[in-house]
Amino acid sequence: MGVDGEYVRIMIDITNHPIDISKVMKECRDESAGATVLFSGYIRDHNEKGRVIGIYYEAYVKMAKNILMEIENEVLKKWDVKKFIAIHRIGNLTVNEISVVVGVTTEHRREAFEACKYTIDSIKDRTPIWKKELSESGSATWKNGLLPFHIKRNHYNENK
Amino acid sequence: MTRKKRSAIKPLKVKLFALAREASGGKREIELEFERKSVKITDIKERLLQVYPQLKRIPFVLAVNYKIVAERQPNDNHVNTPNMYTTEITAEDEIALLPPISGG
To answer: Nearest Cβ partner of A60 from B17, B59, B81?
Structure first.
């Protein structure tokens, strides 16, 4: 695992700024690795109830960063990961903007897919971030979610 | 005669988020005062529901110093998280009220 200053700085983040996906891809490159899987979550134009024009994201920033680091540590223990990036956006986002990105680089594709899925699933399970959906009619509703109990996913260990 | 203030510890601050924050008046942080020295997490929860009865309608968990407080039996100490009934809270601890999360 390459641990130069730049890499450490960008590994995990909760940010107000738009996520630059090409920069993330570039940061994920590692000449010893053959596979990078990148997951990006976008604001879509609808939900179960109708049209959505944007989403406001709020985070308990310090705890959210702690949890992202905790997830990263779990990933580094489970898989031989060369590069790892997880960034979640907060603030007001509009349709087509990126809300979350996870990039994982490993030697071969299988580990990269597994580690990437584990990361995004864990982010959704336990990172203290909330979304409020803004509908076309002007109403704004906090999305129903799950309580952030500390669930460690053992799924992949069991399958190995 | 001056009345001696019996407040034993500094007010405790509780951070509120999202739906829970809006339901309790919109403040990002509120203060709770206790008249006794030893305050447990369960006392904080009880007080929050007393001051903001609206919170009874919202599922939530508390976090102390960024660790989720798991609801469990008073004698269950084998998990490395704050204990609702035994962990003592001081003004230096960071307490937060977290409604159901929805990141991603």
So the answer is: B17
